[in-house]
UniProtKB/TrEMBL annotation:
Full protein name: AAA family ATPase
Region entry Disordered, spans: 53-72
Gene3D superfamilies: P-loop containing nucleotide triphosphate hydrolases
SUPFAM superfamilies: P-loop containing nucleoside triphosphate hydrolases (SSF52540)
Cross-referenced InterPro entries: P-loop_NTPase
Length: 217
């Protein structure tokens, strides 16, 4: 029985919406853990991207420091790696305590979020799902999520956060899809969130079981 579903994709791919649809459709109780919950709620705002000390944690950094408005990449900072490790340990503890968890995540190869994820979850009955809409629709979706980000970070920090995310979107997508070892890859440009959630739930209920994390180990 699948105990853990990991949904990865760049910002704007529909991870959070898909996970919300999934837990709404599922008959069983599933916990929804999200990287936005970790960085937007548990971690103080000043350490979240766009905050005064965000450079110490997981943040978007310009490729060229002399061009702060140019292309950007994701960086761990001094504390980001430990925070991601803590996040994964929390999720594993929930699964080991008998919960079923759906996790929306950004499983990049660099910075090494994916290797840490595999190390913690490779032996769990899991399903590793990638959401991959066309790149050209992501900008519109990122702009459209600012109202939700404002609820957590406030308007000024949300604007900085969204701008950093927009500039790093192509980088994050590249680092997520540097490999093709997923149990499912779904086009959220062609499918509605409800359809994507239904497809994942069908796989959970009817199989076959996932083995992507074991193959990545």
């Amino acid at each position: 029985m699948t105990k853990l579903v990991i949904v990865t994709g760049t910002t704007g791919s529909g991870k959070t919406t898909t996970c919300k649809e999934f837990v709404a459709q599922a008959d069983d109780l599933w916990l929804h853990f999200g990287v936005d919950t970790m960085l937007g709620t548990l971690v103080p705002r000043k350490f979240v991207d766009g905050g005064a000390r965000s450079g110490e944690s997981l943040h978007m950094a310009p490729d060229d420091p002399a061009d702060p408005e140019g292309p950007a990449h994701m960086d761990f900072g001094r504390q980001g790696g430990r925070l991601i490790d803590t996040y994964h340990r929390m999720v594993r503890a929930a699964v080991e305590n008998g919960e079923r968890v759906i996790l929306d995540h950004v499983a990049t190869t660099d910075p090494p979020i994916l290797p840490n994820l595999v190390a913690h979850f490779r032996d769990l009955p899991s399903l590793f799902v990638a959401l991959k809409p066309p790149q050209d629709i992501l900008g519109t979706r990122i702009a459209g999520r600012i109202a939700e980000v404002e609820k957590v970070l406030g308007p000024e920090q949300a604007a900085r956060n969204n701008e950093g995310t927009r500039r790093a979107s192509a980088f994050v997508a590249r680092e997520i899809f540097r490999h093709d070892c997923f149990d499912m890859v779904l086009d959220t440009g062609a499918l509605s969130p409800a359809e994507v959630a239904r497809a994942i739930l069908d796989r959970v209920e009817n199989g076959p079981p996932g083995d992507a994390l074991a193959r990545l180990a």
